[in-house]
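User: Small ask, check this?
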Amino acid sequence: MDTKVVDVPEKGRFEVRLDDRVVGLASYHVDGGTMTLPHTEVDPTVGGRGIGTILVSGVLDAARERGLHVLPYCSFVRHYIQQHPETADLVAAEDRGRFGLEPAPR
């Protein structure tokens, strides 16, 4: 199966697709240089396959490519960042404490 993450700005979300089927989404809002990430969801019928991880990785890659910081209000996104400390720099240093994130290694 072909898995890809697609930005759908008119809907304010990224979608993760298996072949042509949307199986998950991450809602977002960009204001200035910050992408707010309030919510992610994955179809339970594809749970346990790492689809959420693929989705969040794609969203954070897009934020990095666009030069944006992120506000990880979604607990799944926060957990991903905690498990992948190389992405912690995407959260502005002054915001990391409120999300329970350690400062990024220098």
The CA atoms of residues 23 and 43 lie 5 Å apart. Helices lie at 51-65, 75-83, 93-96. DSSP finds three helices and five strands in the chain. The domain at 3-98 is CATH 3.40.630.30 (Aminopeptidase).
